[in-house]
Amino acid sequence: METRQLGKSEIQITPIITGTWQAGKAMWTDIDDQETIKAIRDAYEAGITTVDTAIVYGKGHSEQIVAKALADVRDKVVYATKVFADRLKYNQVIESCEESLTNLNTDYIDLYQIHWPSGAFNSEIVPIEETMQALVKLQEQGKIRAIGVSNFSGAQLAEASGYGRIDSLQPPYSLFWRQVETDAMPYCIDNQISILAYSSLAQGLLTGKFGLNHQFAEGDHRSKNKLFNGENAQRAQKALSELRPLAENHNCNLAQLSLAWLIAQPQTNAIAGVRNSSQAISNAQATKVQLSAAEISKISQIAQQVTDHLDNNPVMWNW
Question: Which CATH class is domain 4-204+253-291?
Fold first, then answer.
């Protein structure tokens, strides 16, 4: 699989990135560790050499699963993980990084990201300067190779960039969730910052596998996703029906079409979660779907019947 430069760093990432929120098990249901390990490994064998995780995913469990899947090929993969919003004081960032290094069974992290801005989820307000000082220190020590942020607005991204080089932004971004395009994307383009889109398949909605009024199992956080509820869900189903013929024309499925559209956007790479090996292999094959400019435009227009009715709140869930 082709690789792309991560921001202005020397790191090369794959346009499709294996996401491992579900590997932590918390807020998900019916997740099997051995199946997840095999899925992550099979994604690697299929060419996806970049993996995104976070210490908050199952209190380190996701990071540990990543290590079990890829420890023997550590020098051939790129690890991206995150420090949570409640650990953003200088010493807390240092400590959290050490925990992640242990969980990942490695002596360096390729991309270390601030998971949510200070104050998110009622966390203590910490000046971004203090957090960035810790991240720059870790970078100088060789414990992390690049710095990224997640869930930051364009203004927050610009402020953080004043205290050190930011190589990536990780926002919620998919065909059905596109607020980043008018907020932070222009800054990313102007400053050569990679976009690592999470929920790139709208948490499975863009696979076409979930019909109207689908009932998620108790404990599955997707039941609170705005796109799965009310009129948004109805609009999404209509858009999916219009996208299916385009997917058939390319002999691909809806997920691959959606991922192909996403990685064709400026600066954008797609984080796609996996529960099993078939999903991992399918995600990797999305890079083979070559869309024309006219098709990209048509797909965008079809999706607007969903996105035009959303507000500017980038948080996907009604928590």
Answer: alpha beta
Asked if 179 contacts 200 with a C-beta cutoff of 8 angstroms, the reply is no
**Per-residue DSSP letter, 215:** -
Give Cβ neighbours of residue 137 (< 8 Å, ≥ 6 apart).
94
Give 264's DSSP letter. Answer: T
CA dihedral 114, 117, 120, 122 (to 10 degrees): 90
pLDDT of residue 66: 97
Which H or E element spans position 8? none
And the tokens for 163? 């205290």
Report the catalytic residues.
57
Residue 268 has phi, psi (to 5 degrees) of -100, 135
Inter-residue contact 118 to 126 (CB < 8 Å):
yes
**Is 239 within 8 Å of 178 (Cβ atoms)?**
no
SS3 category, 106: coil
- Residue 5 pLDDT greater than 90, yes or no: yes
What is the mean predicted confidence (pLDDT) over 146-172? 98
DSSP bridge pairs for 170: 150
Q: Can you count the helices (H) and strands (E) in the chain?
A: 10, 10
For the CA atoms of the chain, what is the radius of gyration? 18
Tokens describing residue 27: 């807020």
pTM > 0.90: yes or no: yes
Contact status, residue 37 vs residue 72, Cβ threshold 8 Å: no
Q: In the chain, where are the structural domains located?
A: 4-204+253-291
Report whether 257 contacts 192 (CB < 8 A). Answer: no
